[in-house]
Amino acid sequence: MTAPASMHVPPGLAQPISVPPFKRSLIGIALAAGLTTHASVQAQTQPTADAMPASSQNAVTPSDATSNADTPRSDKPAPKKESAKTPSRVDQLDRVIITGTQEEGAAPNTSYTVRSTRSATKLDLAPKETPQSITTFTAQRIQDQGLLQLDEVLKHTTGITLVSAGVAGAGRQPVYARTFPVRAVQMDGIMASNFILSGEGDESIGMQDTFLYERIDVIRGSTSLTAGSGDPSASLNFVRKHPYRDRHLHAAVKAGSWNTRRGELDFSTPLNESKSWRARIATAYQNGDHWVDRVNNDSKTLSLITALDIDDSNRINVGVTHYDFKLRGASPHGITRFSQIDDAWPEEFKYPESKGKPRYWVYPTSEAKRNFNNATPWSRTHRQYTNFFANYEHDFSDNWLIRLSYNHADNVDDRLYGELGTRFFVPWADKANYVADRRHGQNIVNAFDAYLKGTVEVLGRPQQLVVGANSYDVRRNMYGGYAGSSDPIPSPDVMVFLCPYMAMDTCGDRPENRTTLGYPISDWNKAGGNVPPTVWRNGDDMYTHKYIHHLQRRQTGLYFSTHLQPIARTHLLLGGRWARETQKPVYSTCHNGQIDPKCGKDKPYKATSNPDIRPKFLPYVGLVVELTPTINAYASHTTTYIRDQNYDSNRHYYTKQWLPPIRGVTREVGLKGAFFDNRLDVAVSYFKMVQKDFPFYTMHDVIFRTNNKGLADGYRVYGYEISMAGDITPRWKISAGYVRQRQINPDSYINYSMVDMTDFMASYRAPEKTLKLFTSYKLNPKITLGAGLRWQSATQSQWIPRYYTQSEKQLMKQDAFAIVDVMARYQFNPRLSLALNINNVFDKVYYQHERSYISGAPRNFLLTAAYKY
């Protein structure tokens, strides 16, 4: 018997072997085959390969159901070979099953896909065996496209939409999938609150350096089984840079548009002769300017991770990551694309065409230049994110293992800014509103996970089982305050709003706001936006704040998942999670918007919110049928839930009970295939998602009012996806995805829901159609060329201020657009290369948010010189 080709066993090992009863011998074989000891290395007595059905598992023998993550796989049984040099006694031996993982200890992955992942179920499944839509953004693709920040990665990910109202890094950047916000996050497959990636709030997932991670897995749909609470949108699994077994070095220097300079070092090495103790350090430093005038930034990134194989059965991983980001002269909101005007405003605000218009009207902004900066020079943002983690894993002798994991994050965001024109920008009157704000936020997150994993024999077949428990605890502290109309202002003509958001809402209808004049735009331009920061009565001390907000949220759960094979070529995945969530918010404020040194001490106010979401069972059901050795059909029913932030402090109008969490259900069917010796994954799927217990404002039975809370079925979304990722040939790599989706609003009076009345991000409508594509081709051993395309259909906000005319012309709309990127790399020798990336080749102008006059990046370049061994 010789090893199947899928093992990639060196020629020296392709010889008869006996099966010793010692795990250490199997470890030696696994190491020689390029696998690792992170996963269990097992010898089992099983029927021969000839008696097993064809399957697409990841172990040496394709039909084995216990294969581990990220290992080479085959979709056909190992061929039988007869050799005169092979003694006949070898044909009578029981098969040897060797499993391994690329998360720790293997060589770098140079593909645009992975062999398998645990992100969706904690089971070791290849992409085509996972009954959900999944996309993996690998380090190789990140390098080929020259992506430096996670928000750039998310913009290029199939099915993902990222929205930014201002300069990236200055404010929030909510992420959407299938029209819903993405709030579910995993770190190395461990459930963690999305607060683990932010200091201020839960909408800064993209504010990280790509150099911290080996890959990002995106599982679309409902994902409570592994990621906890969230909308039926997607979950993101960030896989850190774990040590390789052998020594690897990557060093690079980069230079690009707007004075961008960057240096990178990624070094992994064994620390002893047996390679049982390994370490990896990854660090990067970057600084530069921005296409918006007067904006500059610098960032420092560090990842230090060590892995130790204590013995054949016990392993530990310990590591820390740190990200420090500073941004100067940037506003979290661009000037508004539309200004609300009514007949109570001074005459100079009236546009000449306003005669004969209704009392309330909306005017578009068109005079601002692309590089116009509406922030004061003293505006600044400082983000510091530190994450510590530890894992322990023990293999039992009977094909079971236990894994214990802990994550700790301490993240701080500190922002101070002044910004112009976020509510109205009226060049013909030479006036715009002005807002100043200071926020200091800290999120402390502790997350735990423990699970038992193994195989059991049922119906004569090995079946996988995972049973575990997880939890996370978030402690959030937010200090802040706005410069309101009662504060000192630098000019008697300044118009200062109590509400700092850039969009238009009822705040603009207040009489005190209509009667003031606004800040002269001409003065702003002459002074370069240098409005003195004297709007703060107590200077730069934000601890004499206007408001404080403390929040403690804890989520706990028990979960299980199984991979059953009741009959040949049919796989049933069953799982579920019992989830419970508690929350203790305290909000303190000072009356009348006045700054008070004792604010938050003498005037506490405990928020009235639902303190406890009782345990709920969230089922997971998936069915996979092998149609051919390369193509599977699948169907799934997955669930999730989320505490509604806007309605959480309210009770049902009639029952007086706390409103329950919103439930999300996703049903999905499709076909998946793995082609070209499993190097290319292709998927076609149809999905339908619906929310249950969606809260809304309704009308009183007698009195016309809109503050009565009720429940209904919520948003319904349906659509289909087509995607592929991997290697078409050893020279040609590709990652592409097309998504078409349709959102149907809930029945009832949705115009009076919180979607339209408060959160200015919530009204964003994700595009119905998107196409993301990147491909690279190696012309010869020295030259590699690549190109990418991002296209999306038109989007528009449904939100227009109440009482204002809602004409089609005035809707806040972004037309369809396409962005083209190209790359070229020259390989001087196997170690040294030079690459050039040019993004937005045709310099397309498009907006990152329908209501903010901040465009996407103009044409830009990045030059990279890299050395590796």
How would you describe this protein?
By secondary structure, the protein is mostly beta strands. The protein has one domain (248-868): TonB-dependent receptor, beta-barrel domain (Maltoporin, Chain A). 5% of the residues lie in helices and 46% in strands. The protein is built from seven helices and 42 strands. The protein has a 22-stranded antiparallel β-barrel. The protein has a five-stranded mixed sheet with strand order 3-9-10-7-8. The longest helix has 10 residues, at 23-32. The chain is globular, with a radius of gyration of 29 Å. The two termini are 35 Å apart.
Give a quick set of tags describing it.
7 helices, Maltoporin, Chain A, single chain, globular, 22-stranded antiparallel β-barrel, disordered N terminus, 869 residues, five-stranded mixed beta sheet, 42 strands, mainly beta
According to DSSP, the number of beta strands is 42
CATH class: Mainly Beta
Overall tally of structural domains = 1
Main beta-sheet strand count, sense and barrel state: 22 strands, antiparallel, barrel
What is the CATH architecture assignment? Beta Barrel
Find the CATH superfamily: TonB-dependent receptor, beta-barrel domain
Distance between the termini: 35 Å
| Overall pLDDT | 76
Rg over alpha carbons = 29 Å
